[in-house]
Amino acid sequence: MKTNTKKLTLTALFAVVALIIFIVEAQIPLPVHIPGLKLGLANIITLFMLFLGGFWKVRDVLLVLLVRILLAALIAGNPVGLLYSFTGGILSLLVMFAMKAAFKGAAIPVISVAGAVAHNIGQIAAVMLVWQSASVLVYLPALIAGGIISGLLTGFAVYFLFKTHPKFIGFLGGKNDIR
Amino acid sequence: MKLLTKQNIVFFCIIAFVFAVSVVSWFIIRNIKIENPVVEIYKNGELTHKIELTSDKLDFTIIDDNSNVIFVGHKVGVIHADCPDKICVNTGFIDSGVFPIICLPNRLEIRITDGENELRLDAVAR
Amino acid sequence: MKFKILSLLLALTLNGCGIFNESSESPPTLNRTDYALGTYITVKTPDIPVTAASALDKAFARLFGIEMIASAKNPESELFYVNENAYGRDIIVSDELYSLLHTGRFYAQLTDGAFDIALGSIVELWGIGTENARVPEAYEITEALGNSGFEQLVLSEGERTVRFLREGLRIDLGAIAKGYAANEMKRVLVESGVTDAILDLGGDIVVIGSDRRIGIADPRNSAEICAIVTISDKAVMTSGDYERFFDENGVHYHHIFDGTTGFSADSGIISATVIFECAMISDVLSTAFFVMGVERAVEFAATMPEIGYILIDNEMNFYYSENIEIEIIN
């Protein structure tokens, strides 16, 4: 298989898997109800792609992220939430990319936590901007704590995926230089 | 490949610290009580209703296109909404806390404010 | 807003009958709300129930009496008849209507037409507050202006007659009748022994009793208040551009007209409040000040030092007299 075709196919596949994770996650009830708080398991794909290396670049991650957010909003029937998801998602990717570049030795779960917290802060900032209201700020601590928990969850999931399936990583065109 | 390098241990400590601070402040914020509670209902950023929670009789429902807001006793809550996530409904009833009821998809916000100034008013000239 | 909701609820449920609101914290109060002179009128009194109940009946009876005389919209009112028939002939009117017209014309002269009872044709033309609100054509405004102005009104003291010099002249006592009704209701209540009450005539407030805190609606967000005044036995009358209006092509058209232009008054003032013992004078002057603009209004008020005022311009600057106890809220 040619690299381009393979990459294209895999990109689509990543997007679909991310979407499936998103749909499944929506069925999992959370013990607390906080606006904007989610498990964020779909972030597994973003994180995974970011660490694949090889021919996978940040723009591929961004593409999958955008496709997933767009389709998720359509499926959930919530176009208003699109803006908040975009802000959160892009800020999260930016922070994870920057952390990865700045701290060569930082473990996947650490970067994942930073990304998840950034995602939640980005969302709440978007809400504050659009609503012109600071009252949602009281949810910030809950969103940070929630981000840390979900960041650890997704982070360790990806970490163990890399650790236990080196051949699979190679098959996906990754470099397998796991930290 | 090593998870527990010196750098990562520092990172994990920072994470644990931030987590602890967040949880503690969460509980502190949760226990803040607002005096003279007045309910403000914002729809699409505009104040649509402002109602004292200390008023004598407050059993009524406000219905808009997307959601039903109900006042029962001295509490306010959303009992029905057409949004996908139902966070607003699941938040339950609020009375004097600082946590607003938020519906992101329908852009509904119900918050409690301190109505001290207004409660002490006898009338409003307009 | 809260007060609107409350008064609406009251109006819907208790229209025409008094009830006692028992609450554990505040003493029982007697409320009555009714619709007259184009607005909801509420009287609240914590006074002795028996006295207060009959006093309220008398006060509202007085109110409806004034409505039947001075309402320009009620087709059964005396003013309506005058408006339809007074062109070119002398109409004998009741003492009460005569004195309202006379007082109205006196203040129209005193304020150089900033307050004018003879702008009815302009009010009707714009239809603000009705379904027919629209921006008229220029020629219509010119025509209505020709049919306006207190100079076209002839009053004859001896026979108590009214005559219009122009066929299209229409008297609108909207900016004085509420104040007059407030005075009368207050007088009836006080004569009946009420010593503690708040009269709310669609946002115009009259206080019987001392040290009452009255909020002033924020003209740019009328659900909120922007100031609090503390008053005793006085009226607080506010004229604002936010009560009855419509917006078209980015222009804000409201219900207070400038008799020199035929358009909504655009003096820079967006809220004018007058605080004085006499509700009628407060009512008249709040409208006049709104039309005059800050500079003229302050100058005018200097000639009547016992008048208290609060003027708010379109940049939310406050101008107020020194004789009032005011707290401005940001």
- Tally of individual helices of chain B: 3
**How many H/I helical runs of chain C?**
9
Backbone CA Rg of chain B? 20 Å
Our measurement of the CA-to-CA distance between the termini of chain C, rounded to an integer number of angstroms, reads: 18 Å
- Name given to the CATH architecture of the largest domain in chain B: Sandwich
Instruction: Give the N-terminus to C-terminus distance of chain B in angstroms.
Output: 71 Å
The side-by-side strand order for the widest beta sheet of chain C comes to 1-2-3-7-8-11-14-15-16
What fraction of residues of chain B sit in β-strands? 25-35%
Number of DSSP E strands of chain B = 8
The CATH superfamily title of the largest domain in chain B? N-utilization substance G protein NusG, insert domain
Determine the mean pLDDT of chain B: 81
Oligomer category: heterotrimer
Largest sheet of chain C: 9 strands, antiparallel
In round numbers, the mean pLDDT of chain C is 87
Structure description:
The complex is a heterotrimer of chains A (179), B (126) and C (330). With 179 residues, chain A is mainly α. Chain A has one domain (3-167): Arp2/3 complex 21 kDa subunit ARPC3 (Orthogonal Bundle). Chain A is built from seven helices and no strands. Chain A has helices at residues 3-26, 43-52, 58-76, 81-102, 108-131, 140-164, 166-171. In chain A, 45% of the residues are buried. The model of chain A has no long low-confidence stretch (mean pLDDT 87). Chain B is of the alpha+beta class and 126 residues long. Chain B folds into two domains: 1-31; 37-119, mini-chromosome maintenance (MCM) complex, domain 2. In chain B, the strands form two sheets. In chain B, strands 2-1-7-6 form a four-stranded antiparallel sheet. Chain B is elongated and about 70 Å long. Chain B starts with 5 loop residues before the first helix and ends with a strand. The model of chain B has no long low-confidence stretch (mean pLDDT 81). Chain C folds into three domains: 1-71 and 173-209, no CATH class; 78-172, T-fold (Orthogonal Bundle); 236-330, T-fold (Roll). In chain C, 35% of the residues lie in helices and 28% in strands. The longest helix of chain C has 22 residues, at 49-70. Chain A binds chain B through residues 33-36, 76-78, 80-81, 84, 103, 105-107, 109-110, 113, 117, 127, 131-133, 135-136, 138-139, 141-142, 144-145, 148, 152, 159, 163, 178-179, and chain B through 1-3, 5, 7-8, 11-12, 15, 18-19, 21-23, 25-26, 29, 42, 45, 83-85, 87, 90-91, 98-100, 102-107, 109, 111.
